[in-house]
Design goal:
The protein is mostly helical and 177 residues long. It has 6 helices and 4 strands.
Length: 177
């Protein structure tokens, strides 16, 4: 399971956007495979899913996702939301994998705009999750925040120390011991 050693604990999409902007403005170190632009584009794709439908996926991926949704989905969702973590190496839809970009400005701002659209949405979610089916707005947001922590947790702003005070939220960093 992924370890967010620098203490990300997003409680809103505004916090995730602020973190992305902080990484962009101050530079960051990667502890995973994706750069900031790839992370923002991936998160944008999945923030759109409840509103516009999931990213395109091949038939061979739709079938196992349907089986998981009907069998393991409820238990996995409960685990992910309770622990507020996703396991590393889960895999994703190929359409949500993006090439690295030298300048993440456009990707960060598209993520911010999509997060604002997601947050402003007041109606029912029109599209079910491919893995978890129809979710209420609270669980949809909670899952999106866990997903953001999963990916942004692999980007560490250079201007901040590498660990956070426990329970202090996503931007309260302390000096290393």
């Amino acid at each position: 399971m992924a370890n967010f050693e620098h203490g990300l604990d997003f409680r809103s999409l505004d916090e995730a956007v602020a973190y992305a902007r902080q990484c962009h403005a101050e530079g960051y170190d990667r502890t995973g495979n994706w750069d900031l632009a790839q992370t923002c584009r991936h998160m944008t794709d999945w923030l759109r899913a409840p509103l516009d439908g999931p990213p395109p996926m091949p038939w061979l991926m739709k079938f196992p996702m349907t089986v998981i949704r009907w069998t393991l989905g409820p238990g996995l969702l409960k685990k992910f939301l309770t622990e507020r973590r996703l396991p590393a190496g889960m895999g994703t839809v190929k359409a949500t994998l993006h090439a690295p970009e030298a300048d993440a400005t456009e990707a960060v701002e598209e993520f911010a705009a999509t997060a604002a659209r997601f947050t402003a949405h007041t109606g029912p979610w029109l599209r079910p999750s491919p893995l978890f089916g129809k979710l209420d707005p609270e669980r949809t947001l909670a899952l999106q925040l866990v997903h953001c922590m999963h990916h942004f947790g692999r980007l560490k702003p250079r201007s901040k120390h590498l660990r956070a005070e426990p329970g202090a939220g996503c931007h309260a960093f302390a000096a290393p011991e």
